[in-house]
Design a protein that fits this description.
binds zinc ion; about 55% helix; two-stranded antiparallel ribbon
Amino acid sequence: MLNERKIRIDTRSRTIMVKKRTCSIKACNREAVRSLALDRVEQTGLKVDGEKRAHLCKQHYKEFKKRTKKDRKIERLKWGI
Ligand SMILES: [Zn+2]
């Protein structure tokens, strides 16, 4: 009985993970591959739509990484969290 329950929960969480999200960047509708703190993305000057999390597609995540590279302090904070 207990095992059965566990399996059910696993299946449910997998469904949530698979759920597709689109990129939070304005005028971009590609599939998001990364989820980041919204304020961190805004710091780079990218225009995002959202509340707490920003979901970025592959292309915009690359752009985000490129921009954060310039500021080592932001990069360090990222690893500190
Ligand atoms: Zn995008």
